[in-house]
Amino acid sequence: xxxxxxxxxxxxxxxxxxxxxxxxxxxxxxxxxxxxxxxxxxxxxxxxxxxxxxxxxxxxxxxxxxxxxxxxxxxxxxxxxxxxxxxxxxxxxxxxxxxxxxxxxxxxxxxxxxxxxxxxxxxxxxxxxxxxxxxxxxxxxxxxxxxxxxxxxxxxxxxxxxxxxxxxxxxxxxxxxxxxxxxxxxxxx
Length: 189
Known about the structure:
Blueprint: H1 2-13, H2 18-36, H3 42-53, H4 56-67, H5 79-102, H6 107-118, H7 120-125, H8 129-148, H9 151-188
């Protein structure tokens, strides 16, 4: 019972990590622009792509302030689990570093797959169907688009997927607030 209360708490106060997903829209937009620039050197494009992914945390922090979401719910016992879920992505970046050198034209695809795959455990943490479904959709779509089309197309698709994901999360957050309000009113009566 207590674990479900903690999951509801972290989902509610952290707005199901919406600030991170909104930040990712900005990052994928930046990657899209990088790949549109008239830069012929793929190593430079990949380097710029890596640089723009590095701003995720500060950008998510700023967005959390704008949307009034707690960036970190330190008093929630599941907060550290959320950090571990995020940190596993750092280990996956080792694959991207190898791709950077071995198959540079597929770096954007690998970054998109890593991003998608890391969403899965957050479906459990936030009790969110959006995270479960988008983890699969983003990962599979990234593979299919990344194998068959240019990084420009993949970055554009990622922007669109992140926008859809953000809208879905917004409605999940609204439903969670409604559910919590009903429960709280029941306690007051």
